[in-house]
Structure formats: C-alpha cells, structure tokens
Inverse folding.
C-alpha cells in the first residue's frame, strides 16, 4: 500500500509539499525514526505522518502510569 500525500490524495513523493527525505535529516534523527518505523530512510515520508508518529512515540516514552518515589 502506497503512502498518500494529504494534498490531492496522491502518492507521497518528493512532489508533495510535506515530503521529508531521509537525506534532509541528520544521521541520528533519521536512524532513530527509521528504527521505530516512522521514517523510511530510502523513500522518505510525508511530514504530517512523520510528526504525528514521532510525537506519539515521544509521549509514550516519556509518560509513566506509576511514578516511583
């Protein structure tokens, strides 16, 4: 299944205004986002999805349900 660009509902490619290529990010950020399945370093991703998934991952990693004292 191809990823869709929010503008025009077409395939998410470099033609989409929100497209982010793995080459546009620093090595550490690209590696971390690709390791959790947010970014495909070779094919890139549309930034709305990238922001949503990485933001969700940040909240998940930094939220605890039971705090230890």
């Amino acid at each position: 299944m191809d990823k869709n660009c929010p503008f025009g509902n077409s395939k998410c490619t470099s033609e989409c205004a929100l497209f982010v290529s793995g080459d546009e990010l620093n090595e550490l950020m690209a590696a971390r986002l690709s390791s959790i399945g947010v970014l495909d370093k070779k094919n890139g991703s549309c930034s709305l999805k990238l922001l949503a998934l990485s933001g969700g991952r940040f909240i998940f990693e930094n939220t605890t349900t039971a705090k230890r004292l």
In short: The mean pLDDT is 75. The beta strands are 19-20, 45-46. The chain has two helices and two strands. The helical segments are 27-35, 47-61.
